Amino acid sequence: MYDVVIVGGGPAGLTAGIYAARSGLKTIILEEKVFGGQIVFSADLENYPGFPEGISGMDIIDKFLEQAKKFEVEISYDGVEKIENDISCKRVILTNKSCITTKTIILATGASADRLGCPGEAKFIGKGVSYCATCDGAFFKGKTVAVVGGGDSALEEALYLANLVKKIYLIHRRDQFRAVKILQDRVKKNNKIEIVFDSVVKEILGDKFVKGVLIENVKTKQQSRLDIDGIFIYIGLTPNSKFVSDLIQTDEYGYIITNEEMETNIPGIFAAGDVRKKSLRQVVTACADGAIAASNAQKYIEKMKA
Amino acid sequence: MAVEVKLTTDNWEQEVLKSDIPVLVDFWAPWCGPCRMVAPVVSEIAHEYEGKLKVGKLNTDEEPDIAVRYGIMSIPTLMIFKNGEVIDQIIGAAPKEYFTQRLDKIL
């Protein structure tokens, strides 16, 4: 039996792993897809303390992983289908149908990028539709692309792409951005970026590859077509909490509700990072959550013994 | 021991198109975070399917011609070749089981 099973290998899960294993708990991290989660899509982390020159998302995750391995955290590429809670132990049912028993669980499954859901989007994934500018930007050198969204991610990615492409349409459904001011200022100053406010994407057009996008002005209802070779979508996130929705309390959006100790409604099950209902979702706050969750998992185990 | 083959324009025909067994090609680049993170999964697959499947890595930065030839616009992309033809492709990071299920259907 494990002391701690951590579901999700992003900054929250890896930090929880480091703290749990370092305090002597038998710990495993389960990652379904990609260690690092959303942050590996980021080319440059400017605001994580300790790296004044900035650091890429994947470089910092490499360091997190190295540190977790140093403390002998077990890691495994497995998805979780379901969690069952018993008085004496908890069971984690994996998508490969095997079962792990554990004393505590830390849910650090993060959030996934939302899709537009418009015609053409699914058809052109990998053929001009992208959710990762750092991965795919280089395929659009000297071309024209659109970026959809108005938050920090959308503006950061537009600025990253501006170094590679000829022109960017930054499409946002409101008449102002949600992103922090420093990013808004940089976007407005960048002469490769044309801001298209009050507009939503109705359809992504093309043949084998993306050739254009049909947008509609939400105020005038006027539709127009922009000629583009690629479209990068950053419209928001959905928490990955569905697999525990029968057991764990969430808010109306699916974010897991915890107290300051990262405790969920089920004793011995904690949540950390972006999947949790909170006001600021950053690597540094995910790490903090992970540390608190691991420390409280340890306290829970000690209380079980007593 | 690395069982993955480094693919280039020069060995593409020999290693992929003329291969006796199906080939899984991982299109990747060093600056692509998800590619780097998917790499261990690809390695695990290479070991588990050794003998039945050849696993090759193509760096789209070093070999842009091949990336263009196959219309790669998003990485990681995993393509499965059989008898010189693309018979399946998976774009983006996915759970390992998703890869193995698709492979098991084909092999």
TrEMBL record, chain A:
GO terms for biological process: removal of superoxide radicals. It is an enzyme of class 1 (oxidoreductase). It catalyses: [thioredoxin]-dithiol + NADP(+) = [thioredoxin]-disulfide + NADPH + H(+). Its cofactor is FAD. Residues 2-290 form the FAD/NAD(P)-binding domain. It comes from the Bacteria. Its EC number is 1.8.1.9. One of its GO terms (cellular component) is cytoplasm. Transmembrane segments: none annotated. Gene3D superfamilies: FAD/NAD(P)-binding domain. InterPro entries: FAD/NAD-bd_sf, FAD/NAD-binding_dom, Ferredoxin-NADP_redctase_2, Pyr_nucl-diS_OxRdtase_2_AS, Thioredox_Rdtase. Keywords: Disulfide bond, FAD, Flavoprotein, NADP, Oxidoreductase, Redox-active center. Binds 1 FAD per subunit. The keyword Hydrolase does not apply. GO terms for molecular function: thioredoxin-disulfide reductase (NADPH) activity. Belongs to the class-II pyridine nucleotide-disulfide oxidoreductase family. PANTHER family: THIOREDOXIN REDUCTASE 1-RELATED-RELATED. Homodimer. This is Thioredoxin reductase.
